[in-house]
Amino acid sequence: MIRTTGLTKRYGSLRAVDSVDLDVRAGDIYGFLGANGSGKTTTVRMLLGLVLATSGTIEVLGEPMPRSRHSVLPRVGALIEGPAAYRNLSGRTNLAMLDAAGPGGSRRTRRTRVSDALEQVGLAGVGRRPVKNYSLGMRQRLGLAAALLRTPELLVLDEPTNGLDPQGIREIRELLLGLHAQGTTVFLSSHLLAEVEQLCDRVGVLDRGRLVVQDQLSALTRPTGRVVVHTPDPSHAVALLSGVTEAEVVDRDGQRLVVAHPDPARLNALLVADGVRVRELVDQRRSLEDAVLAATGPGSDHVGAEAPSLRAGAAA
Ligand SMILES: Nc1ncnc2c1ncn2[C@@H]1O[C@H](COP(=O)(O)OP(=O)(O)OP(=O)(O)O)[C@@H](O)[C@H]1O
Fold this sequence. Notes:
The protein is an alpha/beta fold. It has eleven helices and 15 strands. 32% of the residues lie in helices and 28% in strands.
């Protein structure tokens, strides 16, 4: 769906994007993570032919960009940096104007297309109100409606939840999951780990212009081979396990033990058979944050792990 090789953008001596090999596959919800200033927007703009690459190649929907933009862009829905709209006009009129200005899409079916797009983003009831009366979340959804006018095969979204409150973020998330379930491939940039962890199945991490991670979320957060045990009898458990060669207690924090053991089921049986009460026993998994920190290392502008609500009110 999107494939780049050696994609690079220089601004003077700054390599804003540095030899990036993106691989976004059909059916992905791909999260493109990176701190502010890491080069996400520049990459997204290059994918859409809005900024020319210094070097490297780009394929979108199997066609070279920007050369094939006239055939590719009508099949791609895009939302970049706070969608612009005429404030005094209604959402519906804004969409109709965008539809008329965009490539493809006949005039005869415009009304239906606009109505369908408004319906999809949950703005059908307020489509006739002027945009100046819309909340930030409604404006963001209007931007998404514009991206949906052509029933895109691929959605490219730059920080789609920036500036939204938790409710707005959830609405966008549900909308994207719904579109994905209908077959749309989604590529979205974000600086929020939690957002990507909740929504995406494939992740790329940009660190100062370089793609330092690209993998399935499930592979990045795979089990560590350790088991987390919650027990009201931690001392008993530690004493028991000290005599078991294949088990090693690697961490103890109150009633929580982290045990290196090859088989959680066998470990559980061992503990219970000896009278240790087990409240919970789960495979320890690496968090996406751990995976990102391991790849970016110290001194990097780390992507944020803060709750999305803390970002509410940021620039749209
Ligand atoms: N037109 C430009 N001229 C010079 N430098 C630029 C230009 N556009 C972007 N940059 C620089 O390139 C780097 C990457 O910027 P970019 O906007 O792509 O990052 P980003 O990850 O999208 O960050 P943000 O989330 O803040 O938008 C930054 O250091 C930025 O200052």
